[in-house]
Structure formats: structure tokens, C-alpha cells
Amino acid sequence: MTALAPNPAEEDLATFLPADASPSARLFFDQFRKAGLPNRRVESWHYSDLRARLRAVPPLARAPDEAARAVARQKLAAGAFLRVVTVDGFYAPELSDDFSAVAGVEIIRAGEADFAGETADALLDLNAALARGGFVLDIAAGARVETVIEIVALAGAETDRSRFGRNLIRLGAGAHAKIVETRDEGFAGFGDSALFIALGEDAQLDYACRCRETASVEVQSLNVTLAARANLRSVALLAQTPFLRRQYFVSLAGEGAELQLAGAAILGRTDHADVTLAVRHDAPACTSRETFKYVLGDHANGVFQGKIVVPPHAQKTDGKMMCRGLLLSDEAALSAKPELEIFADDVACGHGAAVTKLDAQQLFYLETRGVPHIEAEKILIDAFAADVFEMLDSEALRDVLRADLSELLGEEKPA
Amino acid sequence: MAAVQQTVDTVKTLDVDAYKYGFTTEIESDKAPKGLNEDTVRFISARKREPDWLTQWRLDAYRRWETMAEPRWARVDYPKINYQDLYYYSAPKGTAGPKTLAEVDPELLRTYEKLGIPLSEQEILAGVQERRVAVDAVFDSVSVVTTFKEELGKAGVIFCPISEAVRAYPELVRKYLGSVVPVTDNYFATLNSAVFSDGSFVYIPPGVRCPMELSTYFRINEQNTGQFERTLIIADAGSYVSYLEGCTAPKRDENQLHAAVVELIALEDAEIKYSTVQNWYPGDSEGRGGIYNFVTKRGDCRGARSKISWTQVETGSAITWKYPSCILRGDHSRGEFYSIAISNGHQQVDSGTKMLHLGKNTSSRIISKGISAGQSQNTYRGQVFAHRKAQNARNFTNCDSLLIGDQCGAHTVPYIEAKNSTAQFEHEATTSKISDDQLFYCMQRGLEAEEATALIVNGFVRDVLQQLPMEFAVEAQKLIAISLEGSVG
Amino acid sequence: MLEIENLHVRVAGKKILDGLNLTVEDGQVAAIMGPNGSGKSTLSYVVAGRADYEVEQGSIKLDGADILEMSPAERAARGLFLVFQYPLEIPGVATMTFLKAALNAQRKARGEAELPTLEFMKQVRAAAAKLNISQDMLKRPVNVGFSGGEKKRMEVLQMALLEPRFAILDEMDSGLDIDALKTCAEGVNALRGEGRSLLVITHYQRLLNFIPPDVVHVMSRGKIVRSGGPDLALALEATGYADYTEGAAA
Lengths: 415, 489, 250
Prior knowledge:
The complex is a heterotrimer of chains A (415), B (489) and C (250). Chain B is an alpha/beta fold and 489 residues long.
């Protein structure tokens, strides 16, 4: 095998590491340098050749100044929820709502020590090395937060920047919360963000993520840990993603933890969206359900890689994964790789994948009832995708996603 | 029904270390010097009295191979193979050319008798043996005998060792050899292209339905000897052939290398059914010895409406690395893959298939049943691909794994790639164990734990067993029970 | 025929049977009635030999022999048969294959010759006809895709074929409509007689209208709390189990 030609982007990234970087930041950066930008020969990045895609990186985003805050303020129209705002990956308390009246919620600026040490991926290493100024959102043990918390991630005045957000959502034992994350990177720059979610015993979190107008090249890593009997329901809606890799590293670390992970990608143009899951059942008797749906029009390219790992001691594991694709154009493509890696015998695991087109009979049926063809398509696509929202407990979160979806389908039919 | 009882009986009567084909044959052999270089390649080519083009073809492959690296993506783990410490050619003395049965060394005949392979046409015709199957028997690097050649010849069917075909039908061999698995395909296929020894050649003329099952029986005997067979089957327009392949090897403490290439070509409206019962020596209970089985098998549905069906029962080998595939090139062509892969002891299996949909209205079906026991690792790896122009490609995949005991692993790695809006792919996979409730139910009806397990496992693999020719299915069922022996606590 | 003495059983640490005594005479049809959670199904599983049941004390004897150390298959060969409340599905194994494997395993364990295939087929067909079981059902995999009624009829067919000495019917009426219940009960009644005892476990008296018992035992909190004639079942139907559950708590 011949050695890879050097990639100028890697050299650019090296200049981002500040002179006063901490030893651990240096360690993470060295790990990244050693691995380099992942390419198609790296099995888990086979369908998203980041090395080929990212030939140069824009300048590093600085902590937001007044100009950046002004741009962000404009984008922050009145919202229904209490908001935590980041600009270019930096927590912006002056743009965020006041949480002092909400019992059990605390938001502080994050430090290096807030995040779990080891990583499993080069881009997560890079993020660990370069990210500064994120937040920790703490929900106290036993707190039942009824109000929906919205995390808003915005780009600043200069959109063509490299951003490294790194935030943590932490729920104490028995805490309940509902969080929606709204991301808008303005179609430019390079993003390598990380969100850590740690649920204590018996904690419950409803989490929805709306990703639109992601950066030109964007990698989002989610690092999720569930303690015993904790329950996470997570749904992501992905659209307008020039090149997005969204990767989940989940550990069901405590006995009886439950995970429901879902997503819908509505892609057109030359959008590329890659969802990669590594769900580890690290404790016995955990349950996980993963359901991802792709609607692919135009030249869009959808990728789903899901892996359920069950180590020897994780008996009584119940894991089921499903990926469904709807191809609306002959130029669109879907690659799915749902994997099972099982070392325990008393398990019930399964996965499924299906690629289909719109059902002609259903379309015809709707048309005979007077619905125009285009409308009928939209109705069927909407039904296909919106199905994954149902796993959320919170009606408010489901409504947000439903509204987004109909807006997406109304504005521009993906085909 | 009777088969189940037989399975159960077999389980009872056999020892724990049950590989029953582990004997060696004492016979003098003619070997190439140890190691691999251009001289080895020339030696093999000369021994087989090959034409110059083939010698050059081999040498090109060898030079290419030298620049390649051994693939490491499969989920198998084994010490580095020293390719210079192997023999690449070994032939029992006195088998320089193909022979009639009467001329074959009686020691060899006894070997095949012990293996239960019918070589005597007279006996078969006289009804002593009930099945009528033409056999090509390959012993280490050479074919020792091929039966029923004359009768097949009347139908126009060519069935002979590939070394003979090179001389007798050069135009056919030259046209098709390497046309499905190119010389440069992968590390092991390229190695095979350089040093391939023997294997079968089959040609079915247009419109002919081959009058009997064809079968090749592979036997590795010699120590430190790799087996590199090469099989080429061409089904001309509108023809049909069913081909069976069986393999065994003696018990030896060191690992033996087997790197085969099988190429199938189905022209318009032709159908090839290829069945394998792979029972190479799997190594002992400590994981010592056993065959490293690195095999490239690929079928090309070259003509419209052609069909290729792979059925495999994999119980042997220490390492299995094998993905019988179909290139669905012709419009309306169809590919099928039915597999039972059983691993026990320290065996490692990484096997599956590729279905490459290129033509219009092509369809494929994959049924895979993996059973892991002992401390083995069993991986299904399969790719389903629809090209942009493959209008209306259809695939259905069902892939189930069963775990017996808590020391083993079962893994499923499918790659599903659709580049066409009219493609319809469906994939489903499950992993489970035999439920305690099922076992208890069977035991309440009077079956002991091991019998109950064998019964449930036979049910689990039934969809695939049904694809095998009758006699093979019975044999396979027995083999499954034997392979799982000692796995029930 | 069956003697259970002072049986104490735990399941996952929890005491389920608490000093149960029960004797079923040769040829007798005994009913056990009791509220949910009284330990009825546990009793049937323990007698049949299911793993994961911790027998702390006591003995179970079938025809005088202690069966507690025997495997389920050995017990079956001695003539013990359990009609499962929820019969298991075994995908891929044809019902005929299963029946033959079971019958011959039992015959072999008893030192009897295997039944010739023709004779076996004849017996299955005859029994199947009585129970309204089609040839098609016999070809299908064991219990796979069967309705609740079909599964129960298949249980009775197995019972007819295996000719047990002692059969336990665990909530045979659950999931059955009245017609299916009649068919199954007729099948069972045809097997009543000398040399064969039945233990009918049920929550409702209804089943006993179709399979009239010789004696009725009431079970509560892991033991038999009352025994009597068939009229005891009718009395229970009128008053419910409240007396027993409360009485036991007192």
C-alpha cells in the first residue's frame, strides 16, 4: 500500500494548536496527527472520505466579538423556549436566557476536566485538542425540568471559519429534562463539534436535534453514557447538509438502561449526510432501538453505518436497529451498513435495512381522492419521515420537528 | 425424519474430537522445492506441460503478487504466514498424466474409499453405489482420476482436470480463465493465479442439460503443502449444470494453506448450481493445526436471464475467508447465496457474499445461517450493490445467527449500496440463542439436551439445507451435528 | 401414582411453593384450582423438571421412584407429560419430524424398538383426525403460525401419541374458544382410564365442566389449602378465591 500524499488541511490544523496548549490537548492533537484525516481506507469512514473532501481549512474562529454577537442576535428571533446560545462554538451567556428561575438547572463555562478522557475517533481527538469555551448544562439530581431547554448553535459574522464546539449535558440521578438543539452554521466553514450527554441513574432525557445549513464540511460527534435504568430518547432531523458526518458513540453503561435513537435525513442537491453509530451494550439487560430514515432526491448521498456491540457479560441484551431509505432520483444513492458484533449468547438482537421507492399504489390512491400528484408525494414522504419523531415523549419537541419537516417539504421538494 | 434420527445417533456414537477424515495416506510424492519464486512458478508450469502463454500469465501474476499486501480487513486473526516455508506443488508419484481408473495407485483408491467417494464407475453402474455422480478427484496438486468422462462426452459435456483442459481445449481456457476473477483481483487470488495446481474444468454446450451431477473432491494430504486449486465452469447458452464440491484434509498440528479460485460463467438462459460441503480439518480442541481457507469464488451471470446459485455448508477449516459472489451483468439475471456456517472450538469464519447488480431487472437472494459454539468467532460479511443503470434491481437478504455457549461471537456486517431509485433491497438479520423454553419443551417430550439442540439447529438451517441436492443434504445434516458436538453443557 | 411431599421451591430467590403435599391416585383425575400467583404453573414446571427452579426440600415420586434428580427427558420416558400453557414454536422443524423424534427417543429410553415409519404415520393420522388436525398442520414447523386453539390441539395430539402415565394440563383452557375447548376436552377424555392419571390445573371452573374431576384441590400461597369432591369447584365458582387468599394471609 502506498503512503498517502500529505494533505494541506492537516498542516493548517496544526497551526491552530495554541502555544500555551495544555499537555492533554497536545496529547489529543498528537493522536489526531498520527491517524490523520480519515480516508476511505479507514473502514468506519469508508463512505465519507473526509481527507479527500477537506483539502484546506478556513481560519480558526475566535471567541465572538461585538460584531459576531450582533449577527447572532439578528438570527435569534423570539423563541418559545429558554435558550442557551453558542456562537462559533463558544458559549455566549450574554445572548442566552436567564436560567436562574429554573430550579435544578445550572449552566457554566466548560473546562477540559469536564469531559471524559478517552476517545475513539480522530475527529473527536481533534475536537478535544482545539475546542475551547463550551458549556456544561447541569440538571441536578431529582430535578424534573418541565420547560423545554433549547441549545442554539450559530455561526458568527464570518461564516467561513473553523469551529470546534464542545459541550456537556449532564443529568443527575432521577433528573428529567427536555432539550432541543438547533444548529445553523450558515453553509460555510469547517465544523468539528462534540456534544457529551451523561445520564445518571434513572435519569430521563428527551433530546431533539435540528441540523440545517450545516458547515461546508461538518463533523458532529455525540458521546453518550447512560447509567443504570437511565432512558434517552433522541431524534435528529438533518437537512441541507453539504457534507455532514454525525457520529454517535453510546455506552449503555448501567444495567437496565434504555436507548431510543432515531433520525430522519431529508436531502437534495449534492447533500451528503453520514450517520454512524457505535452503540455498546456495556451492561446486562439494556435495551436499544435505532431507527434512521433517509429521503434522498437529486444527487444526494445518504450513508448509514450502525453498529451494535454486545460484550460477553452483557446478557439479556435487547437491541434492534433499522435503516430505511426512500430514493426519489436515479442520481441519489444510499449506502447502509448495519452491523452486529455479539459476544454474549443470551441476547435478542436484530437489524434491518430497506431501500424502496414511493409506493405507486398509495400515490394512485391519494390521487383518486383528488390530491394532486406532487402533494400526494409530499404526504407520503412526510409520513415516512415523521414516523421517527413519535418515539419522543415530549409533544413540544415532536411539534418542533414536525413543523421543520413540513417547512422542508413545502419549500422545496427534495426530488 | 430419518435424517434427524441419524443426526442424533451420530452425535451419540462419536468421540469429542470427531474429525473422521483426519488420516494420512502413505504415498511417495513428487514435490517442487520448498519456497516461492519465479522458478517455482516455471517448475509447476513445466510439470503440467503448459503452453507458453500460460507460463507467462502465471509469471505476471507472481510479479504482481510480490507487490501486494495480505488483506487484514476480515475478522480473523492468525500468525503471519511464511510463504517461503511451503511446498507449492506435490503430486503422488506416477500420476503425471490423467489416467483410467485401472492405472490409479491402489493406495489412492483406498483413500477415496475411506472418504466415501465413489470412483468406480462399474460399481456405480452395477448399482453398488446408489448415486450417479461424475467425480474429479484432486489429491494435493493433481487430479488423480475423473469418472464418467465418456458418458458425459456423448452429451458434449467436457469435465476434466483443468491441467488437461489447458492442452485439450486451449481456446476455451484462454477465453475464460481469469475473466471473472482477474489475475490482480486480490492477494490470494493472485497467488493462486501464479501457482494454481489442479482443479476441474467444465464446459456445458448450448442447450444441454448436464445428464448427471458433477463433483470434485479435494484432498490435501502432504505436509506443509499449500493447495491452490482452480475451477472454471462455463455454462453456454441455455444449458444447466449442478456441481458439487467436497473437501477434507488429514489432522496435522501445523496449519495448511488452501487458496482456491473458482470462476463460473453463465451465458444467456444458462443456469449453474454450485454446492459446497467444506469440511477441511478445523484444528484440534486447543486450536492447533487446521486449514487456512482463503478462497475467491465468483460467478458471472454474463447472459440475459442467466442464473447462478451458490450453496455452502461450511463446517471445517481453522480460518475461513470466503465470499462466493455473483456479478449480475445480464438483464433479468439472478444470483442466489445460501449458506450454513458453523464454527466450534477455536475456528474463525469470515464469510458471506457479494451481489453486484449491473443489468436491468436483476434479482438476488441471500439466506445465511451462522452458528457459533465453543470459543469460535463467526462473521457474516456481505455486499449488495445496485449500479446506477441497474433498473429494478431486487435483493432480499436474511441473515440469522445462533450462539451456543457464552465464549463465542457472532457478527454481522452487511454493506447495502443502492445507487438507483428503482432498486428495492430488503435486509433483515437476527442474533439469538436457542431459548431455554424451546429446549425444555423438547426435553419434556423425551429428547435429551444434545438431541434437542441438534433438532432445533437443524430447524434453524432448514431453509438452506433444502437447497442442497438430496444426498448432500443428508450428509450435511450429519456434519452439522458432529460439528456441534461437545458444545452443549 | 404421583406423590409430592413437603415441597419447597424458590424461583429467583422468591419462595413460590411452601411445603406442598399432593397425592394423585392411579387412574384419578385431580383438579388444582387457585388464584393467580398461587404457584400452580410453578408446580407443573417443577414436576416436569424445568431448570432454574430451586427445590429446597421435599420429594416428588412417580410410581414410587423419586424423579427430582432426573432430566426432563428421563421423566418423560417414565410417562410424564405436560400440556404447556404456552406451547413453544420451533421454526424449521416439521411437526412430523418432531413427533417421531420424541416418540422414538422415549421408546429407546425404555428399551423398546423404534416404531416402523408406516405404523407411526398411521397412528399420527388416526389421532390427528380425531382432533381435527389437518395433514397440512403436520407438515408445518412445530407450532409456528398456529392459532391458540391449534397449538392446544397439537398438545393433545402429542399426549395421545406418547400415551403418558401421568399428564399435567396447565391452564389448558387459556386462549381457547368454546368449540376448541370441547375438541381438546374430548381428546383428553378419550385418554382417561386405568393406568393413567391426570392433573388438571385451572383458574376457572369452566374447564371442569368438560373434564369432570374425581377430586378438587385448592391451592393458595404455594400449598394445597383444601381438598374435596367436584362440588368444591362449583362452590368456588360461586364465592371466588377471596376466602382463600385472605384466609391464608391471616
